Amino acid sequence: MEINSTACLATDLAGLAVLSSNGCDLAIFEFNQRKCQLKKQLKLMIPFNFLYNLGWKNANQLTAVQRCSDGQFALVEIDLESGQINYIYSSKTPIVYQKYSQRSANYQTSVREGVHWVVANDKDDWREGSKSKPMSRLHNSKYVDALNLMLCLTDNHQLFVNGQVLHHSVSSFSVVDENVDGFLLVTTLDSFLHAIPLEHLQKWAVTGGGRAIERGAQLVGHEPSGTRVWLQMPRGNLETIHPRTLLINRLKHWLDQLHFGKSLKEMRRHRINTNLIYDHNPQAFLSNITKFLEQSPARGLHLYHVPAPLPQSSNTCPQPEYSTTTTKVNGICQAVIQGLLNQPHKLTQLYPAVLTCFVVQKPSLVAQALSHMQLQLKKENGQADQLLALWLRHLAYLVDERTLFNQALKTYDLNIALKVAEASDRDPKEYLPILNKLRQHTPATYQRFQIDLMLEDWASALEHMAQECINHINTHHLHPQALALFNGHKHQQAILEVCAQEAFNSKCWTEACQLYLQANQPAKALECLCLQLDYQEYIQLASAHPSLVTPQQLQTNLKKMCVQLEARANYMCVAEILLYMDKQTNNPKILDCYCLAFEWKLAVQFAKQNSQMPALKTKLEERCQTLIKCLEEWKCQVVQHTHRLGVVRTSKQTQLSQWMQQEAEDLQDVGQSEVLSQTSTLSNASRFSKMSTASGRKKKQIERKKKQIKEVDGQQDEMSILLPALLALGLISQGQQVQRQLLSTLKTCQDKHSSIWPVFVEPQHLPGPLFEIYRCADGIVRMPVEGTMPQRIQIEDEMVAPQVRAISDKWRLKIFEILCRRSPCVDHPEYGLGQVFKEYLSANRQGTLVAGGLGSLVFTFALTAISNFKMANQGPVAKAGLFEAGIALLIAVIASGAIHRVAITICVLFSGVLLFFLNGISHSRYHQTSGPATSAQTQDKKKK
C-alpha cells in the first residue's frame, strides 16, 4: 500500500499506524526483522474532520485528537476491528497532546493554554491535573507513564514538568526509554545538548556542561534501543550523534552482564576512557579477570592498559559515580599479569600486554619487565630472536630509549643491557665502553654498587655496599669486630644474621640461638635449640610462637631429642621430656630413665604414683648386685696395686743403696757412658722417644687407677638416695649388704691412702727410673751423696693424691648396722636362761637334752654374729671359715658345760646338724655355702 500524503503516524511495540491526510485511510503495519509489513487497512468515514496526535491504546485500539466541524476538539478511540470511532472527551480549547496511561488507565491530555487534564474511561469523570501560567501556550507535550511525568514545552521555550518550570531556554526535547532508567534529551537555546536521567529530573539544574551542537539544531528522534540521536540543522541536513551519557549507560548494562569484549570495542570506538571497565564494579572485574582476558583481543587488551591520549576523555565519565583510587592501576596490572601467566597457551601472543602492565605501574617496573622477558625468552625455542625484537620494539614505544637502557642496567644483567642497546639506535661506541668497564668490577655486589653509582641510585648503592660489607665479614671472619662496630646501627640486624649463621656453621648452637633471637628470627633459634638438645628453652620458645611449630612438629622434635639424649646417657633429661609429652604411655620408659640416672628418690615417687613398684624393686635388686660386685673388684684392685707399689719402691730403695755403695756397676756404666760418649745423641733421642710414648701410656693407667678411687668415694652420694629407696621397698638385706661392702671398700682405700701417697717424700717415692730421677739440667746423671734428694724434681700427676672424703655419717642408715648386732644380743638371754634353770636341767636326762639344745642355739647365733662382723669389715662376699666355726663351737661348749658335762656332747651333735641345714639353706638362696670355704675355693682366690 502506498500512502501519498501522511497526516500522522503512531509507533509502538504493537506496530506502526499510518493515517492519510484525507482522514479516511488507516494502515496498520507490524515489525518483522527491522522491516514493516502491512497487517491491516481500514477505511474511516469521518467527513470534514481532521485527526492528529495518533497513539496506541492497546493492540486493537488507537487514540487520537479530532478537530470537529463546530470548532471543538475531541479525544476519540478508534476500534481497529470494526473501524468505529468512540468519543471520550471534548474541549473548546485546542488539545495539544493526548496519551493513554496503562498504569492508571486514564487519558493524559494537555491543552494549549497550559492546562493538564486527566480524563477517565467514563466520559463524565474528568478533572484538572495541573496548570501552568495563563500566557504560556503549549506546542509539544510528552507523558511518561512509568514515572507519572507530564513534560510540556511552551511557545516561549519553557519546559514544564507536571506544571513546574524545569528550564526557561529549551528549544526541543525527547524522551529515551520511557521507564525508570530512561533519559530526557534537551537542546537549549545556548546550543547545548543535555541528557538527564528521568529519575533525577526534579533535581536537575543546568550549571554548564553538556555537548555543544550547532546553533539552531533541533531534536528529530533517537534510536529506541541504542545510543544514536538525530538532529536537524538549520540548513536542513540531518546529523547523527552518540551522547556520552547514553553511551555510559549502555556500557553499564553490558558490564553488568560481563560483556567485556563488546564494551572494550565500544569504548575504543567512541574514545571513552577504558578505566570505566574497572571503575564500574572493581570487585566483579577482578573476580572475572579470566573472562576479560578471553573476550578481549590482543591489540585491544594492550590498548586497555595504555593511558588515553586525550586528557579530557576521563572527564567525560560521571565523576560522582566513578571515583579514582591511587592503587587502582597497580591492582589491575598485577591481576592481568597473573591471569595471563595462568594461560601459557596464549602467553606468547599476549606477552606485550604483560610488558605494558609492568611499565604503566606506579612506579614503573621497567627493570622487572626486562628480567621477566629474559626468562620468557628462555622458554621459546625457535622464535626467541624474533620475539626479542618484537617485544623490545613494543617497550621502545612505551619507554624512551635512554630510560630503557638505564633500566636494563638496573636489572644488573649486562647481557640484557647489551641486547637492549643493540636493539636501539644508539652508537656501539657509546654503550660498549660502559658495559666493558662494568664487567671488570668483581664481585657481583661490587659490580651492582658501581651500576647504582652510575645511575645515581644512592639508596640501592648503599644496600649493595652493605651486602659487600657482609661478604667481606664472612670472607675474613670478622664477626666479633662487626658486632662491636655495628652495635646500634640500622644494619645491626643484618650483621646479627651473618654472625648467627657463622656460629651455626661452627656448631656453636648457644651463640647462634641468642644471635638469631636478637635478629628476630625465632624459627632459626628453634632449630639451634633442637640441635643443642636444650628441650626446656625449645618448649618455651615454641609455646611463645605457636605459628612456627605445630603440635605434631613439637612432638616429633622432642622424640628426636630423646633419642640423642639417651645415646649420650643423659637419662634425666629424657625422663623430663617424656613426662612433658605423654606421662601415661611412657610410664615404663620414664622409670627406666630414673633408674639409669640413679635418681632413686624420684623413681620411688614415680613408682608409687603410677603403680610401678614391682618393676622398681627388680631394678633396685639388680643395682645392688652390680654395686656389690664392683665395690669388691675395686677393693681387690686397690689392695693389689698397693702391694705392687710397695714392691717397686722397695726395689728402688735397694738399687739406690747399691748405687750409693757402688755395687751396681751397670748403673754406673750407664751414667759414665752418658758423660763420656759424644756419639750417643741418636740413641738417646731414640730412647727418649720410646720413653715419651711409654710415659703417655703410664699417665693413662695412673688416671684410670685414680678414677677407681674417686668412683668409690663418689658412691657415697648415690648411697644417700639408694639406701632410703631400698628401705622404702623393704629390701633390708640388700641395703645391709651394700652398706657393709661400701664401708669396707672405703675403709680399705683410707687405710692404703697414706702408703700410696706418703706425707714425707723420699727418693724411692719419686716416679721413674733412678738414672732419670738424678739426671741434672745439663743432661748428666750425678750419683746422690748419702741418699740425698735429686737437684730437681718433676711433679708428676701420680704424685698428687686424689681428694678422698672421710666416711660420712649422712648416707649411712643405722637400721642396717643394728641388724648386725642382733645375734650376739640374743646369746646373752639364752645363756642366762641356762644358768637360772641349771638345777632343773642337770637333774634328769631330758634336762640334759634341753641344755644341749640351748648350747646348739648359742652356737648358731654366735656363728651368725661372727659372720656379720666379718662381712661388715670385708664385705658381703666374706665367708665364715673353720676358724670362725671353731670359735662359735667353743662358746657353745662353754655355755653347755656350765650346765652339765653331758650337755657338751649333745651340743656338739646338735650344732653339727644345724650347721648342715644352714649350709643347705644358704646354698639354695644365695647359690653359695655359708660354711667354711673349701680348699679349692681358697686356691682360686689366691690365683685371682
Automatic annotation (TrEMBL):
Entry GO CC: cytosol; elongator holoenzyme complex
Residue ranges of the TM segments: 847-865, 877-896, 902-921
Record Pfam families: A-sol_ELP1 (PF23925), Beta-prop_ELP1_2nd (PF23797), HB_ELP1 (PF23936), Keratin_assoc (PF09775)
Location of the ELP1 alpha-solenoid domain: 244-438
GO MF annotation: an example: tRNA binding
UniProt superkingdom: Eukaryota
UniProtKB keywords: Membrane, Transmembrane, Transmembrane helix
Gene Ontology BP term (one): tRNA wobble base 5-methoxycarbonylmethyl-2-thiouridinylation
Biased composition (Basic residues): 696-708
Domain ELP1 three-helical bundle, first and last residues per copy: 616-744
Protein name (record): Dolichyl-diphosphooligosaccharide--protein glycosyltransferase subunit KCP2
Organism: Ditylenchus dipsaci
